[in-house]
Each structure stands twice: as structure tokens, then as C-alpha cells.
Design brief:
Elements lengths: L4 E4 L3 H12 L4 E4 L3 H9 L3 E2 L3 H6 L3 E4 L4 H9 L4 H4 L5 E4 L5 H13 L3 E4 L2 E2 L1 H6 L3 E7 L1 H14 E6 L6 H29 L4 H8 L7 H12 L8 H17 L5 H18 L7 H9 L10
Parallel strand pairs: 1-2, 1-4, 2-3, 4-5, 5-6, 8-9
Antiparallel strand pairs: 6-8, 7-8
Helix pairs in contact: 9-11, 9-12, 9-13, 9-14, 10-11, 12-13
Length: 301
């Protein structure tokens, strides 16, 4: 196959991508600040690097799976950053949910450094990532896709090629997150209203997932609420960030986003209440507290 890859950031999505690359036969180096995660990746047959620069020096394709724009800037351009060590012509695949304007800035800087770049935010959740079945919303020059195409196919069941211009992928992901955040908030409102009216939460959930009112987020996150399981698959903190991107871009475009603003305020309330590191379905706890109801498996906070 000949290509070597690196994955910077082995969180739930980055871990799935890195393991999928190994499964497809790509020699892959993983980078993470958590030594336990690096130990686990070595057990999977991966290589590990202590810094982004070390990983990038030996890679043709560098995937970036960190949390936000600030971390992206650090791992690419900061001390021991990947860009200074990467060979000219390497392809950087930016899988981070970031403001589209910032993605454009990063792409410009990478191109100026002699690198190829694909704006490639992802969706699908941890289970699909681990199965190599993510969805990628990708935009970038044809040459970057020519080089990275086999690696993208190894981690995703669907790669949408959205044109030549970085930033398009990030704009599409922003709209996806708008819908996801609003749907999670709606899930919390619907289930808690049902409980408040005297309905059994599991019965209600099982009915709604077969009806027109269902959504992917209701079915997926509603299960967490019904099970009383708030172990983070995607944390409240992430949606505070992502809905913040949506609303700030809306304000910049002078475009009204009342549903997004309301959803963001609910995620912020959940964060303030101490649920920031819990699963984003914990937004239901905000409704429960206001409505004076107990959620399944709940003994308070």
C-alpha cells in the first residue's frame, strides 16, 4: 500500500479512525496526551509518538482529531507542532469541528507551508468510528483526495466530496451540528414532558422511535436517558462548543437562529450544573430539575 498515516488525538472518533486504519493495513502512529490510551493503541498494533511533530515526520497523511480550533492550532503550528516536521506534499486531513472561517485560515497556512489539506469534519458517533463507518463531509483539492482517498475509505462508509475549497466541509458540519443540538434538546424536552404527564419513560421511548416524531438523536440519546446512562459518548461540553459555533456564525451573517440559541442556552445550563463532562443527553437533567421530576436511574444529580 505504501502510505503511512498518523492520527493526532485519540478520543472516541480519533481512536476509531486510528484502529480502522490499522485494520485496513496502514502503518499508523497515534498521538494523545493520555498515556493509558497510547498503551492501548500499542496493544492494537499501532505505533505511538510523544508529540505531533514526531508522528508527522514519518507520515504521508496526518489526521487531526482534536477537540477545537485552539487545540488544532497548537498541534499543527505550536511547539512540537506537526507542520514543521511534515514532509512537503503531506496531506493534512482536518476532522475537527471548527468555525468555517478558522478552517479557511488553517488551510491557507498549510498550503503556504507546502502541504495538501482536506477540510473533513466527521459524523456518526464512536460506534461507527470504531467500525470504520463514519460519514465525512470533505472539501479540498483533487490532489489531496488522490493521496488520502484510500485512507478516507478505510475510516468512513460515506465520503462526501463537496468541492475544491476548504471551508465547505466545515459549513456543512455546522448545519449538521445545528440539527443535532436542537434534536438533542428536543429529545430532553419530549421525554421529560412525557414523564411529567405520568407516562413511563421506556414505554414512551419505544413508541416514539416507531412514529413520525422520531429522529436519530431521539432514538440514540433517548436510550441513554431511559437507561439512566450518562457515560459520555459525546459530552455536553462538546455541544456548548458546537452550538456556540452555529450561533456565532449566525450572528456574523445577521441570520436569526432562535432554536439554536435556545438549545445552546440549555447546554450551557447543563454545563453550569456540573454535567459538562457527561453525555450530551444530560441536557434532559436541566428539564427534570425545572419540572421537579426524577429521571430513570436518578438519585438527584
Amino acid at each position: 500500500m505504501g502510505l503511512t498515516t498518523a492520527v493526532i488525538g485519540l478520543g472516541s472518533m480519533g481512536w476509531g479512525a486510528a484502529v480502522s486504519l490499522l485494520r485496513a493495513g496502514f502503518p499508523t502512529a497515534g498521538v494523545d496526551i493520555r498515556e493509558t490510551v497510547l498503551d492501548d493503541f500499542r496493544k492494537e498494533g499501532g505505533q505511538t509518538s510523544s508529540t505531533p511533530s514526531e508522528a508527522a515526520a514519518g507520515a504521508d497523511i496526518i489526521f487531526v482529531f482534536v477537540v477545537n480550533a485552539e487545540q488544532t492550532d497548537q498541534v499543527l503550528f505550536g511547539e512540537n507542532g506537526a507542520v514543521a516536521a511534515a514532509a512537503p506534499g503531506s496531506t493534512f486531513v482536518l476532522c475537527v469541528t471548527m468555525p468555517p472561517s478558522y478552517t479557511l485560515d488553517v488551510a491557507t497556512r498549510l498550503t503556504a507551508a507546502g502541504m495538501k489539506v482536506i477540510d473533513a469534519p466527521v459524523s456518526g458517533g464512536a460506534a461507527k468510528a470504531l467500525a470504520g463507518e463514519m460519514t465525512i463531509m470533505a472539501s479540498g483539492a483533487a490532489g489531496a483526495f488522490d493521496q488520502a482517498g484510500p485512507a478516507l475509505d478505510a475510516i468512513a462508509s460515506k465520503v462526501f466530496r463537496l468541492g475544491d475549497d476548504p471551508g465547505t466541509g466545515s459549513r456543512v458540519k455546522m448545519i449538521n451540528q445545528l440539527l443535532a443540538g436542537v434534536h438533542i434538546a428536543a429529545m430532553g424536552e419530549a421525554l421529560t414532558m412525557g414523564i411529567r404527564s405520568g407516562l413511563d419513560a421506556r414505554m414512551l421511548y419505544e413508541v416514539i422511535i416507531e412514529c413520525a416524531g422520531n429522529s436519530w438523536m431521539f432514538e440514540n440519546r433517548g436510550q441513554h436517558v431511559v437507561d439512566g446512562d450518562y457515560a459520555p459518548k459525546s459530552a455536553v461540553d462538546i455541544f456548548v462548543k458546537d452550538m456556540g459555533i452555529v450561533t456565532s456564525e449566525g450572528r456574523a451573517a445577521d441570520f436569526p437562529l432562535p432554536l439554536s440559541e435556545t438549545a445552546l442556552s440549555l447546554f450551557k445550563e447543563a454545563q453550569t450544573a456540573g454535567y459538562g463532562r457527561e453525555d450530551d443527553s444530560a441536557v434532559a437533567k436541566v428539564y427534570a430539575a425545572k419540572g421537579g421530576i426524577a429521571l430513570p436511574g436518578s438519585s438527584g444529580k
